[in-house]
Amino acid sequence: MSLLKEIQRRRTFGVIAHPDAGKTTLTEKLLLFGGAIQEAGAVKSNKIKKGATSDFMEIERQRGISVATSVLAFEYDGIKVNILDTPGHKDFAEDTFRTLTAVDSVIVVVDVAKGVEEQTEKLVEVCRMRNIPMIVFINKMDREGKDAFDLLDEIEQKLGLRVVPLSFPIGMGYDFKGIYNIWEKNINLFTGDSRKDIEETIEISDLSSPELDRLVGDKAAKTLREEIELVEGIYPDFDKEDYLNAKLQPVFFGSALNNFGVRELLDCFVDIAPSPRPKLSEERLVDPKEDKFTGFIFKIHANMDPNHRDRLAFVKIVSGKFERNKPYLHVRNNKKMKFSSPNAFFAEKKEIVDTSYAGDIVGLHDTGNFKIGDTLTEGEIINYKGVPSFSPEHFRYINNADPLKSKQLFKGIDQLMDEGVAQIFTLELNGRKVIGTVGALQYEVIQYRLEHEYGAKCTYENLNVHKACWVDPKGSKSEEYKEFVRVKQRFLAKDKQNQLVFLADSAFSLQMTQQKYPSIKFHFTSEF
Ligand code: G4P
């Protein structure tokens, strides 16, 4: 198959949701349709449940599993589908944000009873900022939930989307009868125990057909006709270009657990979802169809196996094709590297592959050469943008608890930071190290991993910081900048890339500082 065809048949996406909305269940059902797995229960959720410590041991136990489920690939209808898994727990949100830099589109799962939840709002906002095409799946229609129209309103208002329903539920909860597929104009009836097999779709070319009354009953048929009329009146027609430009978001209804409405979603998805999209680098816009390989690292995963202290770096191929044993340029290190055993991912397995194409993810064994955001090319100097660090919300001093192991501690911290577990800041005033994280759980993860993977011990000390923001002196008045650095020295630190960071101790002080030094820009992500 030609390079062009290979690239065009790839769909790389992520499923995002608030925990418990049904992300894992939906992912699993998609894999079932793809024939990638044979039975339900095969995909392990890597979510962390309620408590903290016991769960975090659980993460460790599941680390091996989550490597395997980080990318789930399968073939469906001649299309190569790559699902990138995203952790649901909010303390790992940054990991999810980074994974979103490697997807070409997303499916957003919303629980019909709970509606739009906090984590959904945050994740969708990131997707909106990046103009990522989104499809919404409203899940758990077998349960009582919100009225479909109210929920669509809520999605428009809270998520700032412009929705167009492509399927519509017939009843809900106890009265849930099935789905009217607006996209294909047919009906799919729900039997309630269709976990694996679903009833054959019934073609209804005309909603006014008496066949509909016979199938779902007079009352439900009447309601459906009225609702579809309303849908047609209220919502815009589906326009593929608008969807691809993130200006319009199709909505599907269903029940992932009962495997209902999932096929409609998948069929439409492979039809409309984008193949790999061009990506902006600092140098130029790179088209996926270019024949030279380029890619960037969006995730690094440490291996569980203590005998092999290597890590797996996940590369999203942006353009061309990646080949085993071919020398590629590690742009940041200006070093050629060859990879003899690149992994590709298929459902729950990973295996060594010779060739992968734009859109695919390959896993490269790494002994510490990579960090998140690194670019690989065939020789051209390209630096991909868009894997920023986000402003952390928790801050603690980190202290060495075993003076004999300081070397191990530094190495451990260094590598964990490259993996993106947290961020480290060095205070300008006294050189003390501060760890900033998005969630509090990360501190336990760091402590545990330092001990088990590097044999080092650390303790933490609280530090009162409200927010870290990156200081951008470009365009600032030189006198103003000098004064800022002098007056605020106590609150200044450098990040790992030596960029200046302002650690504001309260929202008020941040605001005052911004007002006092109007020519200096303060950013909430490291990339500006
Ligand atoms: P997540 O990955 O988004 O966190 O959600 P997950 O798929 O784990 O689903 C969360 C819970 O919701 C699970 O129940 C799951 O069985 C249930 N669920 C998912 N889809 C549907 C649906 O269409 N209808 C109904 N009624 N329930 C659904 P749990 O009890 O928390 O977990 P489990 O013990 O059943 O695995």
Automatic annotation (TrEMBL):
Gene3D superfamilies cross-referenced by the UniProt entry: P-loop containing nucleotide triphosphate hydrolases, Peptide chain release factor 3, domain III
Major localisation: cytoplasm
Residues binding GTP: 85-89, 139-142
InterPro entries: EF-G-like_DII, EFG_III/V, G_TR_CS, P-loop_NTPase, PrfC, RF3_C, RF3_dom_3_sf, RF3_GTP-bd
Locations listed in the record: Cytoplasm
CDD domains to which the protein is assigned, alphabetical: RF3
Keyword field: Cytoplasm, GTP-binding, Nucleotide-binding, Protein biosynthesis
Residues in Tr-type G domain copies: 8-277
Superkingdom of source: Bacteria
Family: Belongs to the TRAFAC class translation factor GTPase superfamily. Classic translation factor GTPase family. PrfC subfamily.
Function field: Increases the formation of ribosomal termination complexes and stimulates activities of RF-1 and RF-2. It binds guanine nucleotides and has strong preference for UGA stop codons. It may interact directly with the ribosome. The stimulation of RF-1 and RF-2 is significantly reduced by GTP and GDP, but not by GMP.
NCBIfam families named among the record's database cross-references: prfC (TIGR00503), PRK00741.1 (NF001964), small_GTP (TIGR00231)
Family matches, as PANTHER family: PEPTIDE CHAIN RELEASE FACTOR RF3
Name of the protein described by the UniProt record: Peptide chain release factor 3
Organism for this UniProt entry: Mariniflexile ostreae
Organism lineage: Bacteria, Pseudomonadati, Bacteroidota, Flavobacteriia, Flavobacteriales
Gene for this chain: prfC
